[in-house]
Design a protein that fits this description.
It is a single chain. This protein has about 270 residues and is of the alpha+beta class. The protein has a domain of about 180 residues. It is about 45% helix and about 20% strand. The strands form two sheets. The protein has a six-stranded antiparallel sheet with strand order 2-1-3-4-5-6. A two-stranded parallel sheet has the order 7-8. Strand 1 and strand 2 form a beta hairpin. It starts with 5 loop residues before the first helix and ends with a helix. The C terminus is likely disordered.
Amino acid sequence: MNTNNNVYTVVYTTVVCVLVAAILAFVSGSLKNRQEANIKAETISQILTAAQFDTESLKSNDDIINFYKENISMAYTVNANGNEVSCYVTEDANICNISELKKANYSVVDPAKADEIDIPVYAFKNGVTVLAIYGAGLWGPIWGYVALEPDFKTVKGAYFDHASETPGLGGKIKDDPAFRAKFVGKVVDFDDEAPLSIIKGIAPDAKANAVDAISGATMTSNGLSKAIVSWVNAYKGYILSQQAVAREPQGEVMPLAVEESENINE
């Protein structure tokens, strides 16, 4: 065969491309389940971190997923009115993944699509509830989770992640625990147009529902703040309904009657 012939070159190139494509497809298919398990465990770890669970001892995907299944009470999605839309199977540790958050974000940020809102809620057995957020940073998507105390007003904790923010600047939304810690103890205030936000130049304690922006990362801070405001407002119906439930009397232990107390003392 004349290896200098153009036909040989075309056939050889085609065969190599087909073989490489087949190998890549095989490898991708073989690793798909493992990749999905890694992504699922990573997302669950972020949710648990926002809820202030200690995840340091959870070394494997199975450890993370089993810990989640042991501590989750209910996981479901809600609409703009705060009503449950669908339930996740907690026994299988089903959750809303990042691509689904991206899809949900279209209805969150567009008032015309408010009736299509379908966003996740993770309620844990200790009374902490985790809500999701998604938005755009400087270079790409950003997302995260905000955890609320049982009063559904006080922030228990938060965790944020990103696709491509600048290391040492915007990347601090994920990498700097001190930034995330600023959210602890803040409150959700729907009397403010921005019920929970990030504001440049305000001391941490100066405003109960806002934290300081990251120095040198204005665009990322603004993007994250916008995402938090949009998603917390999308959860407004749910949060307010749960606040009302939290304020309801849970029942009191009635004291013994005087006569009964005297009999006991005898």
